[in-house]
Write a structure and sequence with these properties.
By secondary structure, the protein is of the alpha/beta class. The chain contains 9 helices and 10 strands. Strand 9 and strand 10 form a beta hairpin. The longest helix is centred in the last third of the chain and has 22 residues. This is Limiting CO2-inducible protein B/C beta carbonyic anhydrase domain-containing protein.
Length: 247
């Protein structure tokens, strides 16, 4: 991955790092601040089930226990309360739960947002495809309020999230960028709700909210943190670690 590619990503997400650098710094901060090693961390992610996220998943993240997969289309935590409670009770008692959640978006080498060039394909394709699909329906006024079906439950949920912020998304300079911001906010709100309804038999809960950025097939992936804090489960105090992460 060249510095030029990172610079291209930074035009959209100024605080982005490569995914490898992101995970390295994450684990360093947790060790320095909480005194915990990767094998004391039970990791869950709420990311899109898109295959590109599996292809570009950071290898060092596997030093943590897990990951438990909470996310469906575009990273919304469809595993819900049952999923959060299940993985919470897999954590080492002297360790921490680490919840990483992020919608994803593609950025090509030439800076086109909402697309990537995938392996074995001659043309670019949508990324996130679900977000672009829901956005297309929004722009064409094809989303019916409160219409959530069993057949396409996850996609319908994303459509309803976008519909609630229709004016904001439609008026944005980059509609797919703004739709991804809207998606992040919805995921962040739901994660907070799930955390409030879960008992964790460990020392800390670490919450990391971000935008996960997919590059073309030979670019790798990137990450732009929006939130990095931990909850001390003894005192219920929250501490923000964003300054430590970007120091």
């Amino acid at each position: 991955m060249s510095n030029q590619n990172l610079d291209t990503v930074k035009k959209w997400y100024p605080n982005a790092k490569t995914t490898a650098d992101t995970v390295n710094k994450l684990l360093d901060v947790i060790e320095n601040k909480l005194g915990l090693q990767p094998n004391q961390l039970m990791h869950a992610d709420s990311m899109c089930c898109d295959d590109v996220n599996a292809i570009q998943y950071p290898p060092r993240a596997y030093e943590m226990l897990g990951p438990f997969k909470m996310g469906g289309l575009n990273g919304y935590p469809f595993a819900g309360v049952t999923g959060m409670n299940a993985f919470a009770h897999h954590v080492p008692e002297d360790g921490a739960v680490v919840v990483f959640y992020a919608p994803h978006i593609g950025i090509t080498k030439d800076g086109t947002i909402g697309e990537i060039h995938r392996f074995g394909q001659s043309e670019n394709s949508a990324c996130c495809g679900a977000a672009k699909g829901a956005l297309g329906k929004l722009l064409n006024n094809q989303i019916e309020k409160d219409n959530i079906t069993d057949l396409d439950y996850q996609m319908n949920t994303i459509e309803q999230i976008f519909l609630k912020q229709a004016d904001r998304i439609k008026s944005a300079d980059s509609q797919i960028f703004e739709a991804t911001e809207v998606m992040y906010e919805a995921i962040n709100e739901r994660i907070e709700e799930l955390v409030s309804k879960t008992n964790y038999p460990c020392k800390y809960v670490v919450l990391i909210g971000a935008i996960f950025i997919n590059g073309d097939k030979d670019m790798g992936s990137f990450c732009s943190y929006k939130r990095f804090d931990y909850i001390d489960l003894t005192t219920k105090e929250r501490t923000n670690l964003m300054d430590d992460f970007y120091a």
